[in-house]
Amino acid sequence: MEIVGVDPRDQRWECDSPRYRVYFYEGTTSDEYEVRGAEDVHAVVEWAENDHSGRSYVLYAVVDQDGLGMLRLAGEDPYEAADSPVGGA
Could you report the per-residue pLDDT of 11-62, keeping only the tens digit for each? Predict the structure, then answer.
């Protein structure tokens, strides 16, 4: 992990009411949910932790700019290859 100072004037946009997606995985199946109107990301994590029923999960922020995209916030997609151009780093 690297921590560096930033100039907050470089940002171009901000979203005060983000949407989230949570994917729960069990074996080769998954259940996907979109969460809207959450107080903050901590409320979504709390819901996922309480509702996961022993399944692993991945939490994304939904970014709707030039098409729908997702930014992973927590967890790992068990089916995403480490060398995938989409995510594995």
Answer: 888 788 899 999 999 888 899 999 999 999 999 999 999 988 889 999 999 9
Pseudo-torsion of CA 84, 85, 87, 89, nearest 10°?
80
Which of 16-54 are b and which e, b meaning 16 or more Cβ less than 10 Å from the residue's Cβ? eebbbbbbbbeeeebeeeebeebeeeeebbebbeeebee
Token representation of residue 24: 């729960």
Cα separations in angstroms, 38 against 23, 59, 69, 75, 80: 16, 13, 19, 19, 27
What is the model's pTM? Answer: 0.78
Domain boundaries, the chain: 17-74
CA distance 27 to 70: 23
